[in-house]
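Please, why this fold?
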Amino acid sequence: MKKYIVRLTQEERNTLKKLLTSGRGSGRMFTRVRILLKADESEDGPAWPDEKISDAFDVTVQTIEKVRKQLVEEGFDAVLSRRQYRQKVSRKKIDGDVEAHLVALCCSEPPKGRARWTLRLLADKVVELGYVDNISYEAVRQTLKKTNLSLG
């Protein structure tokens, strides 16, 4: 059973049809317009099932569900316009301070019983010393590469 039902007004349907015939817009927008027109369950709408829309426009059923959900939750204009790009906040765990401690650690004597530091040993030691809560050895490798240090 569909959770989000598309019911377009006559005005919305006319706007969508006009967008299709204008020839101006992105392929994404045209696909969404066609999905909305076929998913319309109002009196004048064809009320196609999602599987039929999927076959007709070569999109996944999940895409159709997302378009219907966005229409119901965010409105008509949100479906047709592209979302504003927001840059993700950097999740870097190694800032300049941690990097300095890591470099100093790398240049120090390795643990007893070891001939040299390994990436995993460095990662474990940085966590043990409390510089970060957790860190992957890959992050350690990238930091050492950036600072032109190598193990060995």
In short: The two ends are 61 Å apart (CA to CA).
